[in-house]
Amino acid sequence: MVDMAKPLATRTRSQQWFERAQQSLVEGVNSPSRGAAVYSPGPVFLERGQGTRVWDADGNEYIDFMMSFGALIQGHAHPKVVEVVSRAMAEGSHFAAATSAETEAAERLRGMVASAEVVRFANTGSEATMLALRLARAYTRRTKFLKFEGHYHGWYDPYLLNAHSHPPGQLGPRDSPTPIPDSEGIPACCFDDVVLAPWNDVVALERVMQRHGRELAAVITEPIMANMGCIPPREGYLQRLRELTGNYGVLLILDEVVTGFRYAPGGCQAYYGVTPDLSTFGKALGAGFPVGAVTGPRSILNRMRSGENMVLHYGTFNGHRLTMKVVAANLELLAADGAYEKLHRVGDAAIAGLREVFRRRKLKAIVQGFGPMFQIYFTERDAIHDYRDYCAYADTHRYSRFVHGLLEQGIYMTPSNGLHWIISTAHTEPDAAALIEAADRACAALS
What domains lie within the chain, and their CATH numbers? Predict the structure, then answer.
């Protein structure tokens, strides 16, 4: 275990690598969530991991609670995953041909997700959500779709509206949000078919469906808002969303790229008892390997069958043999007795301990979420219910200072308040206790 009382060594080599990386990579990284805009004075360069531990270029040891943004559901270098990968590589990692591995992975997925009559694998969550929308448009013969403020569904052009925080004065009225593109380089026409609405608000949802329901191909939503930290749905919200979409002939796309296989074997749809028309998966599905998946009824996914009016979805690396082997092994591990009980037990222990630290230190902070995923907000509010709450009331700068304090004590986490703390099957109660101890010290310094 990391000695929490012992300060870390310097990060000299991480800084040297960062300076070198900037000569070849934009901002020295391959995704802005890893760069100096998030980590100060620069990112921690990680070199290896085992279980819940990671080691940086200077040899510093950390307990990892970021877990590759949730992809590492089994922790680092799980023995079974290592064995499967080694064997698959020796046999030939990829053929771009039909293999038994992709069938076995699909069968495992179907066995866990009740709504998954058939499966199509892709390479990322972004690809999966792109395909889901294309399928919905082909099936319904409609073009518009509804997305919610604050939700992120990948970097496909039409999805990139209002997925990052902005000053509350820029958001516009709640009934008619101001569209704010998240990226340059996207023609305005890409957003012509996007309807925006606030999330977690039944009254607003009913109004927007009354106005636009008959022209929508789909409503896409995260079951738990994971792009603004961790914001669970209000009681009955997802059920009402399912009811309304059915009433208007709109397909409900449940984006479980973040939540899938994390809260229950069947994902959040099983946990909350909601059956979507289409689901997208990624992250935890691949246990650290890049993968995406779209699942749903054969009547919708059969639109991809060859012939006239087909929904085109090609990909050299779709159903990558090595990844499919990992997917099947990962889902077998998650189906074992006790896996989800442990995820919830360890996560809930960490959450309870953090809440007690904030109470004792008299800090205005809350911990939202439950079990395997949660987030801390420095706020005067009792809860953060949606995107507008996050933009107005979450002190993201204070959170960043708090996490930088934890990094100095051997707790690895992203300082971005819009992401979330992740519990893997490798985490233990002692890991949670170490986090709580480090948080107590970080809070003392914050005060």
Answer: 12-77+338-446 (3.90.1150.10), 79-334 (3.40.640.10)
